[in-house]
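FAQ

Q: What does a record look like?
A: Structure on top, sequence underneath. For example:
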């Protein structure tokens, strides 16, 4: 057989492999062809398709550049290159390929616009992405991608009413289509952005009931996240949601069962942090003191006493900011993993010899629970990001303390509960903000306040606060947070306040602000109010630091009890009310004594800073001891 027919035969086999999604088999055959004829543009075109399918992103990009050198540019070539760039997370390259398609291939304009709107969305150029969506819908009014990104752009641009209306239309039009779940979740997000929290949670419940076997783990994860806001969903109901997620995620997952890590109880530990919130974010604030202390303990004089800990970060979001730059020098490695597949990231964690892998997200944005499901490290735990169970059997432990998770409450989790003496540690804000006298002294009336995210303010919370204002004459309420600067959200929120019986003349609503201005709001608040069942954490600590007492309601789950945990740790357990009646009575007592409020405010910051909440040395040692205990248990 001659060389050319032989090559044609091999290309036929390559095409067959690609049609059956057997990328590695196709690449093995292409290697032979390229060695024999490295300047054949068609071979490189197939190489691009195979590498993109195998998610070998850099090799696929290199194959496209070789095609370009050889003058090969079919529409399919650019489409494959664009899909590769999108999966790779390279918005710049995706936009480049989109523009080439739009410029050179009139018959592929719709594909070019799809790629363009996705690239602009990835670059957070929401108005331009929305314009590309509208252009695409003119020629393809039923294009699902265009409708999906139109909604996402509208939400990002603060237009939740328009997003909700489009979701409703799409859910009717796509009643039996596989894209339906996408718009169901987007509708839940739109309802929350619109301020209709109870409606959003009700839709989530209906969706679960109607689609128990839906095989999209991201949808189940989103429902786990939204469940934090639902005061009526039981603890076991939350666990069931998480177990549904785990069942779906692990359907096609094959966890590792063997590791090469040396099973030595007292060896130096290599800790992996899997998360994207090590930035200006509550998770970043809480991790900083631990990393600082562990970094100091790497000095040789400390190693024998405390054991050596090496930390590697696997950044799942790549949204670094100035705070991130402060953290980077405190760890031994920092990897952007946004472009890695589940298996690729799992293999990287194994190759780096991570002994204990810590998930910092749970069911929050940026999570890689898909990787935790592979169990790439012999010991795995979840911490900080999500105060509830992940549902995954491959996560061994969840960190807690005795207040947030009493022994009688461990059945909330599929993970084993490992308790620290205290759950949180905090670093004093790097802000020059003095504590001022309580505003009641100059106003003549009490101002209650909440700087929690407004979507935490469910109807039960608002009903309790409305009763509080009715019981304390002349008192006012100040609420500040994301969304309240958006007209649609603000109007919807005001409607909810009216339904709960508020006099809007006694309520001040303010939008978000930079951190220093945000915290300065406490100079206008006498008494801060915590939310439930999704209690505050950072907001509680910041309110205390600014001098405001924080009133909280005792709860029945970890995410609710966290306020109790923080207030007890800070030395203010008296501000946790066992029920709603005593919550109002506690508020009345505090409000009736402006002089006591002033006295408390003068000494509160110092009292807080002297509490264990700011003792990073003890906290870092306690956490290191916990990790060592987990490792020794594994070694046994």
């Amino acid at each position: 057989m001659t060389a050319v027919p032989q090559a044609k035969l091999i290309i036929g086999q390559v095409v067959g492999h690609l049609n059956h999604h057997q990328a590695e088999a196709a690449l093995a055959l292409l290697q032979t062809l390229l060695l024999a004829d490295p300047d054949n543009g068609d071979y490189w075109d197939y190489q691009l398709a195979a590498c993109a399918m195998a998610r070998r992103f850099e090799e696929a990009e290199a194959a496209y550049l070789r095609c370009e050198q050889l003058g090969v540019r079919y529409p399919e070539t650019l489409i494959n290159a664009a899909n590769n760039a999108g999966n790779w997370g390279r918005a710049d390259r995706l936009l480049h390929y989109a523009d080439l398609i739009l410029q050179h291939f009139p018959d592929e304009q719709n594909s070019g616009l799809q790629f363009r709107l996705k690239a602009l969305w990835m670059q957070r150029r929401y108005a331009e992405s929305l314009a590309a969506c509208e252009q695409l819908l003119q020629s393809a009014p039923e294009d699902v991608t265009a409708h999906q990104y139109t909604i996402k752009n509208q939400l990002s641009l603060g237009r939740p009413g328009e997003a909700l209306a489009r979701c409703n239309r799409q859910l009717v039009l796509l009643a039996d289509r596989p894209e339906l779940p996408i718009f169901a979740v987007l509708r839940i997000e739109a309802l929350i952005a619109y301020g209709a929290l109870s409606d959003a949670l009700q839709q989530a419940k209906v969706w679960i009931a109607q689609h128990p076997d839906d095989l999209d783990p991201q949808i189940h994860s989103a429902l786990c996240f939204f469940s934090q806001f639902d005061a009526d969903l039981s603890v076991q109901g939350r666990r069931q949601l998480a177990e549904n997620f785990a069942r779906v995620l692990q359907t096609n997952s094959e966890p590792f069962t063997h590791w090469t890590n040396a099973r030595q109880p007292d060896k130096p530990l290599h800790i992996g942090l899997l998360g994207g919130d090590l930035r200006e974010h509550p998770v970043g604030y809480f991790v900083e003191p631990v990393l600082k202390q562990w970094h100091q303990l790497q000095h040789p004089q400390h190693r024998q006493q405390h054991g050596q800990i090496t930390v590697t970060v696997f950044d799942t979001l790549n949204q670094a900011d100035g705070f991130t730059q402060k953290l980077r020098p405190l760890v031994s490695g920092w990897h952007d993993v946004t472009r890695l597949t589940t298996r690729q990231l799992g293999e990287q964690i194994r190759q780096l010899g991570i002994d204990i892998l810590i998930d910092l997200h749970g069911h929050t944005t940026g999570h890689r629970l898909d990787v935790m499901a592979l169990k790439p490290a012999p010991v795995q735990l979840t911490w900080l990001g999500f105060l509830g169970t992940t549902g995954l059997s491959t996560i061994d432990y969840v960190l807690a303390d005795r207040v947030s998770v009493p022994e009688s409450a461990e059945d909330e989790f599929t993970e084993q509960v490992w308790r620290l003496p205290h759950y949180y540690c905090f670093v004093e804000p790097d802000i020059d903000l003095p504590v001022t006298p309580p505003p009641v002294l100059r106003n003549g009336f009490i101002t209650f306040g909440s700087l929690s995210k407004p979507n935490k303010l469910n109807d039960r919370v608002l009903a309790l606060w409305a009763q509080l204002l009715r019981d304390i004459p002349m008192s006012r309420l100040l609420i500040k947070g994301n969304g309240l600067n958006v007209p649609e959200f603000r109007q919807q929120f005001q409607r909810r306040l009216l339904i709960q019986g508020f006099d809007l003349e006694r309520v001040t609503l303010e939008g978000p602000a930079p951190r220093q201005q945000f915290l300065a709001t406490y100079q206008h608040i006498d008494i801060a109010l915590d939310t439930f069942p999704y209690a505050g954490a950072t907001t509680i600590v910041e309110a205390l630091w600014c001098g405001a007492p924080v009133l909280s309601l005792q709860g029945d789950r970890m995410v609710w009890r966290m306020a109790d945990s923080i207030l007890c740790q800070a030395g203010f357990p008296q501000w946790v009310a066992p029920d709603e009646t005593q919550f109002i009575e506690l508020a009345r007592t505090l409000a009736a004594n402006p002089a006591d409020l002033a006295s408390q405010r003068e000494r509160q910051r110092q009292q807080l800073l002297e509490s264990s909440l700011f003792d990073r040395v003890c906290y870092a040692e306690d956490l290191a001891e916990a990790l060592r205990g987990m490792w020794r248990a594994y070694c046994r």
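Q: Is there anything notable about this one?
A: The chain is about 55% helix and 10% strand.
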